[in-house]
Amino acid sequence: MDNLFLLILLPLISALILALLKTNAAKSIALILSIVSLALTIPFLCQFDPNGGMQFEKNWEWISALHIHFHLGVDGISLPLILLTNGLMPFIIATTFSKDYKGNFYALMAFMQAGLLLVFMALDAFTFYVGWEIALIPIYFICALWGEGDRIRVNLKFFIYTFLGSLLMLIGILYLYQQVPNHDFEWTSFIALELGDNTQRWLFWAFFIAFAIKIPIFPFHTWQPNTYTNAPAAGTMLLAGIMLKMGVYGLMRWLLPVVPTGVALYGQFAMILCVIGIVYASIIAIKQDDAKRLIAYSSIAHVGLISAGVFTWNTNGLSGATIQMLNHGISVIGLFYVLDIVQQRTQTRSLSELGGIASKAPKLAIFFMIICMGAVGLPLTNGFIGEFLLLKGVFQYGFWFAVFGGLTLILGAVYTLRLYQQTMLGEATDKTMQFEDVKGGELVVLSLISFLILYIGIFPNFLLNLSAGSVEVLSTFLGR
Amino acid sequence: MGAIITLSILALVVLYLGLFKAKTLLLPVSILGFLVAIGFLLNDWTADKGPLFSGMVHFDHYAIAFSVLCIVVTLCIFIISKGYFDEGGQVAEYYSLLIFSLTGAVLVNSYHNFSMLFLGIEIMSVALYILVGIRKRDKASNEAALKYFLMGAFSTGFLLFGIALLYGATGSFNLDEIKAYVVNNPHAISPLFYGGILLLIVGLTFKVGAAPFHFWTPDVYDGAPILITSYMSTVVKVASFAGLLRLFSYSLLPLQDFWEPVFLIIAIITLFIGNISAVMQSSFKRMLAYSSISHAGYMLFAIIAVGASSANSIFAYGLAYSLATIVAFTGLILVKKTTGSEHFEAFNGLGKRNPMLAFAMTVAMLSLAGIPLTAGFIGKFMMFSSVMEDYHIVLLILAVINAAIAVYYYLKVVVAMYFRDSEESCVNVQWNYSFVLLLAVGLTILIGVYPDCLLKLI
């Protein structure tokens, strides 16, 4: 059962099955299939040997005319993300049980899962690019079909923006393909190339822009707040929880090892962009009235810190980024889910119209508190260990970067607590008077998310061990 | 060779069938004829007999592959034309003219002598001049026919003049001898020859609809009946490209330094004009006309970076583009039947009115936009990678910008189908349409997922 291709195949088959289902059973079947996916991931976790090398490799010839291989493999950087993808999917599906989505919604989700897994497993640039693009199609349809507000225009912008970015990356990939002596797209051939400084300069930008748009790093973030706000809750979870990790993963897997000199030359500039993004997005988040928009901006700030950790290129920053990607996924899904519950019951997301929910729904208030603490990065929650490592890495890189990057903690506490305060505390308003507490499925999902937040916060070693070897290997590429 | 004879006889037979009012026989007989022609072509695949008839035509792998592509696409168009021209009454003429035009296309694919190139292009075009105006009571159709005829006559004049100049310089129409002339006189090539090349480029880029010789395209594509438009934008375009590439990759290859910049400029202008104009269209048919211009720009990449893989790239691109275009026009025909409009609004709510048709259209649009797992991506990927072999990075960046622009107008259709609602009734799809849609969409996805055998074909 240790065939990585099975992990991709299963969501594809699920997508086909779900697309044909017209009944309400689609929800339960989608949930079951996603849990099966998660279960199939466990053997890989158990057998994984954290030595930094690629494991469970599968290599088939795909398009022999162009020397393209369907080459899969995982190491300590991709395995946590595969775990994240397969682990979050059941949660995201479970959060939609109160909606009237049909089979096609879940089919798109499953299709996207296949694309994401392909991105995280691909060791061949062509395969990677295919996964990168096909993950975009389903999320576009999810956001535009089930979204709200100005969904058509916003998502068109999102699509064209990311598509342009990936095409730039395609140019870079094609260029590298020409450079490889025996013309293939293998990751190992790419990293073995000795490229000149000038080549690395433009290649850096070709890849960086593609990844920066996806993450998004300031100033390529302009699609993000609108897309997040107008997407359906499940779509936002997919985008913020999993899809933006594609970009960070791209930085770690393709940008750093392939163009190390380019990163050495422009890394500081990228770092400055990340730090600007952190401060800028946090300040905007503080002023938001729309709660979903607030979290959208907070997400820019959080991933800004994660990408800054990647660009520090030391073991602390890199392993912080790896673990924080996972933690951010869990926390952000919790946040969006609580918001979705609130919005469903009160028909509003406006902070000025909310308040006093804690008195009506104490259980929800407790869960929300735990999730908020995780997002802020309080000790004993999952966010702490990640942010601590990230800041440590950034501090090693440069004092002032750490000072400004560290603002994320303070500003993060400000907007997250403001969010909590404005929704949960204070006097109940007209809209929140009749607020019902969480029950049934909601209770289960929220308890599981809270449990994960606390568990990872207290016992983070398992995750750190997973990625330690690969991070060590990656950091040796510096200045090569 | 058997294919050309079969098609010529087929066209005459179809004409006679029309004379004897045997309307029901038209389609089966034509399909049978096509299959026989394909059989003749495939029979020659393994045995390359070299240039036939004192070097007039040459059915090599290249010619056979493109001819089969043209015939299969025409076959699809025939299948969807069942019932399309019922009201008119000139069904037999329509069928037989299309077959004549196809004969010309096969000649253009397989010529080995300029006289055959000229004959092929003329046979292909003259039949089309009539076909474009076949709705004789429709003003737009008449206008399109007149425009196409006048402009086409001009461009043929350029082509002929170019051929004459080449003849003046080399004393031959034969591709082999022209190649020998270029190879043997590297430093003493007559200025006539260069002039001839330029005039040939003008004549041939007119036929493929590349800027700045594209002005006929939108009006003619828009005015002609949809089926004729789909024929023109697939078979004629692919065949003309096959002819163009054959000339430049075979005879004129040593002079690449001379003609490459010309094609480079043409390609860039074509991309921008095609894409930017397509963005502004409100008619789906006109949008496809402009998008076909921009695709001509991408296909020119194979000629700019001419090399061992050019033939395969242009074949893959042409196939992907033809499949997607057929689906798009089939969708347009079906939608026009219920709404009577050719605008984007006609597609509103198609996702609910007919999910399968909407899915097929989505795949076609994604393929035209070049999204992975569709044939269009493989075509674009081949084009881009062949241009990268010559390190035309600036050209690639411009192409990438254009690809991003193109997504906008292709997604407009998707947006209309899925995200806008409509009061219109369901769209019924007859079996013949379903068959073509299934075939084209199936092939598009199949090639997108596993293109290996296709890329090693020629």
Automatic annotation (TrEMBL), chain A:
<feature type="transmembrane region" description="Helical">
    <location>
        <begin position="202"/>
        <end position="220"/>
    </location>
</feature>
<feature type="transmembrane region" description="Helical">
    <location>
        <begin position="263"/>
        <end position="282"/>
    </location>
</feature>
<keyword id="KW-0472">Membrane</keyword>
<dbReference type="GO" id="GO:0012505">
    <property type="term" value="C:endomembrane system"/>
</dbReference>
<dbReference type="InterPro" id="IPR001750">
    <property type="entry name" value="ND/Mrp_TM"/>
</dbReference>
<feature type="transmembrane region" description="Helical">
    <location>
        <begin position="105"/>
        <end position="123"/>
    </location>
</feature>
<feature type="domain" description="NADH:quinone oxidoreductase/Mrp antiporter transmembrane">
    <location>
        <begin position="123"/>
        <end position="407"/>
    </location>
</feature>
<feature type="transmembrane region" description="Helical">
    <location>
        <begin position="364"/>
        <end position="385"/>
    </location>
</feature>
<dbReference type="GO" id="GO:0015990">
    <property type="term" value="P:electron transport coupled proton transport"/>
</dbReference>
<feature type="transmembrane region" description="Helical">
    <location>
        <begin position="397"/>
        <end position="420"/>
    </location>
</feature>
<feature type="transmembrane region" description="Helical">
    <location>
        <begin position="441"/>
        <end position="464"/>
    </location>
</feature>
<dbReference type="GO" id="GO:0048039">
    <property type="term" value="F:ubiquinone binding"/>
</dbReference>
<feature type="transmembrane region" description="Helical">
    <location>
        <begin position="325"/>
        <end position="343"/>
    </location>
</feature>
<comment type="similarity">
    <text>Belongs to the complex I subunit 4 family.</text>
</comment>
<feature type="transmembrane region" description="Helical">
    <location>
        <begin position="6"/>
        <end position="21"/>
    </location>
</feature>
<feature type="transmembrane region" description="Helical">
    <location>
        <begin position="232"/>
        <end position="251"/>
    </location>
</feature>
<dbReference type="InterPro" id="IPR003918">
    <property type="entry name" value="NADH_UbQ_OxRdtase"/>
</dbReference>
<dbReference type="GO" id="GO:0003954">
    <property type="term" value="F:NADH dehydrogenase activity"/>
</dbReference>
<feature type="transmembrane region" description="Helical">
    <location>
        <begin position="129"/>
        <end position="146"/>
    </location>
</feature>
<dbReference type="InterPro" id="IPR010227">
    <property type="entry name" value="NADH_Q_OxRdtase_chainM/4"/>
</dbReference>
<dbReference type="GO" id="GO:0042773">
    <property type="term" value="P:ATP synthesis coupled electron transport"/>
</dbReference>
<feature type="transmembrane region" description="Helical">
    <location>
        <begin position="158"/>
        <end position="177"/>
    </location>
</feature>
From TrEMBL, chain B:
<keyword id="KW-1003">Cell membrane</keyword>
<feature type="transmembrane region" description="Helical">
    <location>
        <begin position="391"/>
        <end position="411"/>
    </location>
</feature>
<dbReference type="InterPro" id="IPR001750">
    <property type="entry name" value="ND/Mrp_TM"/>
</dbReference>
<keyword id="KW-1278">Translocase</keyword>
<dbReference type="GO" id="GO:0048038">
    <property type="term" value="F:quinone binding"/>
</dbReference>
<dbReference type="GO" id="GO:0050136">
    <property type="term" value="F:NADH dehydrogenase (quinone) (non-electrogenic) activity"/>
</dbReference>
<keyword id="KW-0520">NAD</keyword>
<keyword id="KW-0472">Membrane</keyword>
<feature type="transmembrane region" description="Helical">
    <location>
        <begin position="314"/>
        <end position="335"/>
    </location>
</feature>
<feature type="transmembrane region" description="Helical">
    <location>
        <begin position="114"/>
        <end position="134"/>
    </location>
</feature>
<dbReference type="GO" id="GO:0042773">
    <property type="term" value="P:ATP synthesis coupled electron transport"/>
</dbReference>
<dbReference type="GO" id="GO:0012505">
    <property type="term" value="C:endomembrane system"/>
</dbReference>
<keyword id="KW-0874">Quinone</keyword>
<feature type="transmembrane region" description="Helical">
    <location>
        <begin position="431"/>
        <end position="450"/>
    </location>
</feature>
<feature type="transmembrane region" description="Helical">
    <location>
        <begin position="226"/>
        <end position="249"/>
    </location>
</feature>
<dbReference type="InterPro" id="IPR010096">
    <property type="entry name" value="NADH-Q_OxRdtase_suN/2"/>
</dbReference>
<feature type="domain" description="NADH:quinone oxidoreductase/Mrp antiporter transmembrane">
    <location>
        <begin position="113"/>
        <end position="405"/>
    </location>
</feature>
<feature type="transmembrane region" description="Helical">
    <location>
        <begin position="261"/>
        <end position="280"/>
    </location>
</feature>
<dbReference type="Pfam" id="PF00361">
    <property type="entry name" value="Proton_antipo_M"/>
</dbReference>
<feature type="transmembrane region" description="Helical">
    <location>
        <begin position="92"/>
        <end position="108"/>
    </location>
</feature>
<keyword id="KW-0812">Transmembrane</keyword>
<feature type="transmembrane region" description="Helical">
    <location>
        <begin position="146"/>
        <end position="168"/>
    </location>
</feature>
